[in-house]
Write a structure and sequence with these properties.
The chain is mostly beta strands. The protein is built from no helices and 14 strands. About 0% of the residues lie in helices and about 30% in strands. The strands form three sheets. A ten-stranded antiparallel beta sheet has the order 7-4-3-2-8-1-9-10-13-14, with no helix packed on it.
Length: about 220
């Protein structure tokens, strides 16, 4: 059995950087900037965490999930000749001319940003070994429809990293931009609230070579 960890969200707001958090202070590699949507706006940090060392392929790496607060839709994997297109994380996402999301897997990100994510409320995350949860890292994907498989532009078959349950709400600060098609004005959803499966390139061809697959 592959190691699997449930993701639990705390209730006490964070007032300082933490590597495992909803919102909060993102960690980036040297020279790496905060991801921006095709519209030019800075994407919101939804959550980040350090993957346990025993997670296959990606143990010890830092996972960060960003999504634009102003654009909300399902992701649309773009393929050509049986593979995802090069730099698929920047490819157009019809009807949009570019990407509104970014997922990063970094080996050793440096110090946290000086300022936290301004919209999503910062809360702590805890990882616990578990086999009975749908917000998880590691293990195998619990597909709600048929399993989906994708090959990276570099030729590697993507491997499962993380699953986010359907309609999982992320609280936002008062005055934050209202997300289109969200459930409430005080909450954000990832990819219209679809069940989300994060699949990543096991060859680590790029920190952004992580694909969000949506099902409902």
């Amino acid at each position: 059995m592959l190691p699997e960890y449930g993701i639990e969200i705390g209730t006490e707001p964070l007032d300082r950087p933490a590597r495992n958090s909803v919102g909060g202070w993102p960690y980036f590699d040297d020279g790496q900037g905060w991801p921006r949507c095709f519209c030019g706006e800075r994407m919101a940090l939804f959550f980040q965490l350090d993957l346990p060392d025993d997670i296959e392929f990606f143990g010890g790496e830092h996972l960060s999930v960003f999504h634009c607060a102003h654009h909300n839709d399902a992701s649309d994997p773009i393929t050509a000749d049986g593979r995802l297109v090069p730099r698929f994380w920047e490819a157009p996402q019809p009807p949009f001319p570019g990407s509104f999301w970014r997922v990063l897997l970094q080996r050793d990100p440096g110090i946290p940003e000086a300022e936290p994510e301004p919209a999503v409320r910062a809360l702590p995350l805890t990882l616990r070994p578990s086999k009975d949860t749908y917000f998880k890292v590691g293990g195998t994907a619990s597909w709600v429809q048929d399993p989906e498989y994708y090959r990276c532009a570099c030729g590697s078959e993507l491997a499962f990293v993380c699953q986010v349950p359907e309609n999982w709400e992320f609280g936002v600060h008062p005055g934050a931009p209202v997300q289109p098609y969200s459930i409430r004005d005080d909450a954000y959803l990832l990819f219209l609230g679809n069940e989300i499966y994060l699949l990543a390139c096991p060859k680590r061809c790029d920190p952004a070579a992580v694909l969000p697959v949506n099902q409902n």
